């Protein structure tokens, strides 16, 4: 099964170990991971601590991408 | 934590703005949302904390822990400058220098360097940041709108 997979910035850096775990486990569960193209930072706790609007709008882009590319 | 979360809610109900906006608790909160999940009255306590943080900064309040707000601000500025994704190494560098300027401590610098090196050794600290996104202009627009 193909599933949308949004890793987020830290999985490319300080949380690379989580990314490796997910990449290792997913095929064993029969999951094919599909990253939304050109995904951006969700703003994390910094956005929702300082700017509610930013915390809503930043994650809306990758979500919109997934919504536009999901069939059925 | 100078105020327990239930007192934050009580003070909010009583309209004690000054006490709340100047409290350490709102900056101590790391938004794990356990309180929100367990609140028997269904109050979004972490959400209230967020609102108070944003409002304290907006009103230019003297913050009891300015380094927390500074970290959040650097975080967001880093995303904007890098064109969409967070350059973690650049953020760590800027935050470490900020803390050192406020309170120079050789020991803390040493601890930070050790941590940085340990992360680097395990491939968890990339000196080169993420590439700017194709949708960079759209990200910039979101930041511009959010700041206005």
What does this structure look like?
The complex is a heterodimer of chains A (72) and B (148). Chain A is built from three helices and two strands, in the order βαβαα. Chain A has helices spanning 16-25, 44-50, 52-69, and strands spanning 2-4, 32-34. In chain A, helix 2 (44-50) packs across helix 3. Chain B is globular and about 50 Å long. Chain B starts with a helix and ends with a helix. In chain B, 66% of the residues lie in helices and 0% in strands. In chain B, helix 6 (66-82) runs antiparallel to helix 7. Chain B is mainly α and 148 residues long. Chain B folds into two domains: 5-58, no CATH class; 66-147, no CATH class. Classes of the chains: A mainly alpha (72), B mainly alpha (148).
**Rg calculated over all Cα atoms of chain A:** 14 Å
The total number of structural domains of chain A is 1
Biggest interface between protein chains, with counts per chain?
Answer: A-B, 26 and 36 residues
Main sheet attributes: strand count, strand direction, barrel closure of chain B: none
What does the average pLDDT of chain A come to? Answer: 94
Unreliable spans of chain A are none
**What integer is the average pLDDT of chain B?**
94
Shape descriptor of chain B:
globular
Strand content of chain A: 5-15%
How far is the N terminus from the C terminus of chain B?
Answer: 32 Å
- C-alpha-based Rg of chain B, rounded: 18 Å
SSE sequence of chain B, one letter per element: HHHHHHHHH
Summed up, the domain count of chain B is: 2
């Amino acid at each position: 099964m193909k599933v949308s997979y949004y890793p987020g910035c830290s999985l490319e850096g300080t949380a690379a170990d989580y990314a490796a775990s997910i990449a290792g486990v997913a095929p064993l569960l029969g999951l094919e991971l599909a990253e939304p193209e050109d995904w951006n930072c969700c703003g994390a706790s910094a956005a929702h601590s300082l700017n509610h609007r930013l915390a809503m709008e930043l994650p809306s882009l990758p979500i919109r991408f997934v919504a536009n590319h999901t069939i059925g | 934590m100078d105020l327990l979360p239930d007192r934050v809610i009580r003070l909010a109900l009583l309209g004690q703005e000054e006490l709340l906006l100047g409290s350490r608790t709102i900056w101590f909160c790391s938004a794990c949302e356990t309180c929100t999940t367990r609140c028997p009255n269904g109050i979004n306590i972490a959400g209230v904390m967020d609102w108070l943080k944003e409002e304290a900064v907006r009103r230019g309040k003297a913050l009891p822990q300015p380094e927390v707000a500074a970290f959040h601000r650097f975080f967001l500025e880093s995303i904007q400058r890098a064109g969409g994704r967070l350059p973690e190494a650049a953020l760590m560098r800027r935050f470490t220098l900020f803390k050192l300027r406020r309170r120079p401590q050789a020991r803390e610098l040493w601890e930070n360097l050790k941590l940085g090196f340990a992360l680097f050794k395990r491939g968890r600290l990339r000196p080169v940041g993420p590439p700017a996104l194709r949708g960079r202009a759209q990200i910039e627009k979101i930041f511009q709108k959010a700041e206005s």
